[in-house]
Design brief:
2 copies of one chain form a homodimer. Chain A is of the alpha+beta class. The first copy, chain A, is built from 8 helices and 22 strands. Chain A has 3 domains: 139 residues, Gyrase A, domain 2 (2-Layer Sandwich), CATH 3.30.1360.120; 82 residues, Aminomethyltransferase beta-barrel domains (Alpha-Beta Plaits, 2-Layer Sandwich), CATH 3.30.70; 81 residues, Aminomethyltransferase beta-barrel domains (Elongation Factor Tu (Ef-tu), domain 3), CATH 2.40.30.110. Chains A, B: It is an enzyme of class 2 (transferase).
Chain lengths: 367, 367
């Protein structure tokens, strides 16, 4: 671990006061903002996330708001996912690609109305791409970053906690749908979504002033449910196969390489900027793809640079995220593997900073 | 200070091994990359920077490379600075603005040839804006992030150190000019520039493989000059009035508000996207502007959020960067102040987290 020098450039959030009071011990920086990553320890936070409920300050999932008559057209230009069937009230996970088919971001997109959308972004300034395209095409839209800070409630007891604060009707929300729920005299967008596979919600807080009241209301209401402050958990997200933009994929990668082909309707996504570039890979498939990889031996260190994956003396891939899983008793990891060696059961060698490790390609992720 | 959770997403650099060996104690994150900020202490590093010579890993100053027949046209679209007189071999500091005149970045731009430019960026993904504009306008250019990692040599003894490694001819480089200098069998772009006012150079290393040889050569050659590893120093940069994008200015601000009007030729920068929006402010001047502000009393803490600047009960500005200056015996700071109170000598009150402080607007920055 290293010390982080704080400055205004690494933005605080409407919940930072609560995060500090809860004893945060580790941050990362995400979209020029502080993202709490650790409270007690990665392992303790992991066990708790999988058994109780946590409140996560994910304000760093900044929104790119697209508003105006051309909003729908613009959002379709960004993604190979076919949006014609998407209704207001729905959230879609969308690969965003450039003209070469390279991934620029992998947000969840919230369709508020036909002409108003929020793109809830991963760690890159997607605002700049969307503004550039809107300007270059002279589209009739407004594009900006509104004052919206998501707060996630994740874990098996998330429904019970949310019902305490927002009423029982919140339980009826379907996966990747949102509704409007009252808090502090305001209507908030609340979606059933989140960056874990333990179940839960994301609350899109508009206006920072309600930040601490909302944080405190959730912490208070959750006492009997053993609520704690938490954050996206490295171990749980790898077990769950949840990719991280900048870690597991970059603009070098197509969605198909990332195993996101199911979110691409390349044949019918008319208007998508990267469509031409993706037609061939959509038909023939990629030559390398994301795979779950289990590594034997003692807990591995954090991945700070890609670890080469070898088949004998031949490099056939790289590990981008890895952690020891207490629940599965093995080092779980996310790797990009060439098609010659990506079948489940393939045995490979990962060159970690601590030396080579035996590894095996798994059929599917753990959660 | 907080702990930083390391991951592949916060990229290491070709010099990270040297930085670690030199005993780095603090990082920030800049363009998704580690930027070393502290070695011994901010104060010790400051005194040393002003008296000797330091080697800085500023790889995080990523390049946006623009190549092709439309390269010059595209770069002019990005900035209100008139580029018609710029020659290959020159570096220009350039405000980059969007269609509303808001600052998107404030890079140094290196004109390698008529059709090849490097934009050496501050902390925002300017690549996305440049790619979006190039695509929207169907320009005949290639835009990408090349494998180029700047290394800065800063301090009063920088000339002597550079001459040891690159030969005496490096001393003849004029300010904001670059030349090609041999190292390890390759020709490197070396410019007289850098993010301090202590004098020095920036070496644009192409290809990471030469990173540690270059780092080690500078450290070895500098033994007699008391060379140390360093980084952009908070105290020195405030004394020098060097702005930091994301701290002192954002896309809310025009270049004129940031005191960068002298880098804008709004009347003649034909093709600049933000030109129309800036014409009025260029003529009439802004209603608020960056000012040096001296605060009395004990050393202030780090600025993590804007500190309001008050004239009585009226808010007339905000402080975005501040530190205690040992050399000037006062808290130096960078503030945005409304025109009613921006004259030198104006006495104001800054609301710091430790309570209100008396402050006075200075005529100019300290270095």
């Amino acid at each position: 671990m290293a010390q982080l020098s704080l400055s205004r450039r690494l933005r605080r959030t409407p919940f930072t006061e609560g995060v500090l009071a809860a004893g945060v011990t580790g941050y990362t920086v995400y979209n020029h903002m502080l993202l709490p990553t650790v409270f007690r320890s990665v392992e303790e936070d992991y066990h708790h996330l999988k058994s109780a409920v946590q409140v996560w300050d994910v304000s760093c999932q900044r929104q790119v708001e697209v508003r105006g008559p051309d909003a729908g057209r613009l959002v379709q230009m960004l993604t190979p996912r076919d949006l014609r069937g998407m209704l207001p009230g729905q959230c879609y996970y969308m690969p965003i690609v450039d003209e070469t088919g390279g991934m620029l971001n992998d947000p969840v997109v919230v369709k508020l109305t036909e002409d108003r959308w929020w793109i809830s972004i991963a760690d890159s300034d997607l605002l700049y791409w969307v503004k550039g395209i809107a300007y270059g095409y002279r589209l009739d839209v407004l594009v900006d970053e509104p004052d919206v800070s998501p707060l996630a409630v994740q874990g098996p007891r998330a429904d019970d906690l949310m019902a305490e604060v927002f009423g029982d009707s919140v339980r009826d929300l379907r996966f990747f749908r949102f509704g409007l729920f009252g808090f502090g005299g305001r209507q908030l967008v609340v979606a059933r979504s989140g960056y874990s596979k333990q179940g839960g919600y994301e609350i899109y807080l508009e206006g920072g002033d309600l930040g601490m009241p909302l944080w405190s209301a959730l912490i208070e209401a959750g006492r009997a449910l053993d609520v704690r402050a938490g954050g996206p958990n490295l171990i749980e997200r790898i077990e769950s196969g949840l990719l991280s933009y900048g870690n597991d994929m970059t603009d070098d990668n197509t969605p198909h390489e990332c195993g996101l082909g199911r979110f691409c309707n390349t044949a019918t996504a008319i208007g998508c900027i990267g469509r031409d570039a993706l037609l061939r890979v959509a038909k023939e498939g990629p030559v390398q793809q994301i795979r779950p990889l289990a590594m034997s031996g003692a807990p591995v260190p954090a991945v700070e640079e890609f670890w080469p994956v070898m088949a004998g003396h031949r490099k056939v891939g790289r590990v981008s995220s890895a952690a020891f899983s207490p629940d599965f008793g093995v080092n779980v990891s996310i790797a990009m593997i060439r098609m010659t060696h990506w079948d489940a059961g393939a045995t490979l060698t990962v060159m970690t900073p601590d030396g080579p490790r035996e590894a095996v390609v798994k059929e599917k992720f753990w959660n």
